[in-house]
């Protein structure tokens, strides 16, 4: 599934310094809930935390792909955060994270979930794109860059 089918400008944010891992996951949950009112924020957050307990979703090079499965949703929902200051995230390379792509998927869509995560990881493995994302200073530019 293409990123522009998952993400909206309203769920794409440049974030000021001072976040923790927990607060970043809360923010991802809040943004998804604001745009999808039938998804309670606490359920979104709990799904992300349940996945993080199995192991960090920090994939290295300053990137994290926090994700959760929910029975209440029928299509994937994404949130993109770019942090002005990298945050500790227990990533596999032990480096802090400044690009977070949160994803919520239907509980019974395992293959689509894996395919979507792979597509996002592939896109965010592009060094030039990540460099541009890190330089983005407003939400709209961040959205345009990640969806082009």
Automatic annotation (TrEMBL):
GO terms for molecular function: protein kinase activator activity; protein-N(PI)-phosphohistidine-sugar phosphotransferase activity. Coiled coil: none annotated. Residues 5-148 form the PTS EIIA type-2 domain. It comes from the Bacteria. InterPro entries: PTrfase/Anion_transptr, PTS_EIIA_type-2_dom, PTS_Nitro_regul, PTS_SugarTrans_NitroReg. Signal peptide: none annotated. Gene3D superfamilies: Mannitol-specific EII, Chain A. GO terms for biological process: phosphoenolpyruvate-dependent sugar phosphotransferase system. SUPFAM superfamilies: Phoshotransferase/anion transport protein. NCBIfam families: nitro_reg_IIA (TIGR01419). This is PTS IIA-like nitrogen-regulatory protein PtsN. It comes from Ferrimonas marina.
